[in-house]
Amino acid sequence: MVYELTRHRFLDLLKTYQPSSYEVFGQDDTRFTMPMHHAMKCRDRLHVALKCGLGRLPSEKQTIVDLGPFPGSLLRILRRLDYTHSARLFGAGLMISDEFVHFMQRDVQAEIHAVNLDPAGGHFQSKGYSKKVPLWDNSIQLVFALEIIEHLTSPFHLLSEAYRILRSGGHVVLTTPNVTRIGNVFKLLIGRTPNDRLAPPGYNNTDDEWRPHAREYAMHELTEMLCRTGFDITESRFFLGEDTQQCRQSVRQQGINWAKWPFYVVPHLRGSLLIVGRKP
To answer: What are the boundaries of each domain within the chain?
Structure first.
């Protein structure tokens, strides 16, 4: 039987979800109209990714990896779902302090590792991070890589690691901002660059492990990259991942947001991409 995480079920979970100190933005954060935490802010993306991934996950002996696990929201939600409450959970990426590792072990029995998934960038060589996810080949059933490849100089190392650790028939679920979104088109029309979220030329702050975007992608590029790595594409979609809900916005920004809505009828003008690859 295929598991379906409905929107209603997911939002009910968030109503009782207790965010950790790593997830909260602070009671006095003036960006939001209400106290906010990472899982709530990213609820659209998390629901779409979880629904797609868990619908392909068997009900027994589940093994799941989150590439880029900080601040822990995805793994903490997985542990709180009845369907995955007994799954083996792993995370690998940056911003992994000893305190975060111990917290995730105590809270959700997740095994977390500091791994540099972008060795081509050369930014963290002096820190001695492993370049490989410390898991056996062909050992994992489901890998999530949510909003991470846009931060990488080259995504192929991450994709190759996902392919290596996945079992035959396992899936990788990937989300990332859509470079063809209507907001970027508007910027070009008024003479602005759509790359204002990218790292500026020469940016090389190794102390900042929560890095700006290196580049953003169109759907055909994601498809080509996953196919080159060896994956078969089982699903791809454009979706609205609105991270600005409950954000304070000027009247001008509110007007711009309303102006975008008619264009969302065209899929490739929506803000986010989701693609699912299956290892043959």
So the answer is: 7-278
Surface-to-core class of residue 256, CB atoms within 10 Å of its CB (0-12 exposed, 13-18 middle, 19+ buried): middle
Which single residue is written with the structure tokens 């792993």? Answer: 90
Between CA 162 and CA 225 the distance in angstroms is 13
Local confidence band at 184 (pLDDT 50, 70, 90 cut-offs): very high
Give the tokens for residue 62. Answer: 């589940």
- Tell me the pLDDT band of 104, cut-offs 50, 70 and 90: very high
In this model, does residue 92 exceed pLDDT 90? Answer: yes
Contacts of 128 (CB under 8 A, 6+ apart): none
CA angle centred on 78, ends 1 and 46, rounded to 5°: 95
Residues 221-258 pLDDT 10s: 999 999 999 999 999 999 998 888 888 889 988 998 99
Q: Is the pTM of this model over 0.90?
A: yes
CB 185 within 8 A of CB 258: no
Crossing angle between the packed helical segments 43-54 and 73-80, to the nearest 10 degrees: 50
CA distances from 242 to 140, 211, 223 (A): 30, 20, 23
Indicate the fold that domain 7-278 takes in CATH.
Rossmann fold (3.40.50)
Q: Could you give the strand order of the β-sheet that contains 88-93, starting from the edge strand earlier in sequence?
A: 110-114, 88-93, 63-67, 140-146, 166-177, 272-278, 232-239
- β-strands 272-278, 166-177: how paired? antiparallel
Q: Quote the CA–CA distance of 188 and 166 in Å, as a whole number.
A: 40
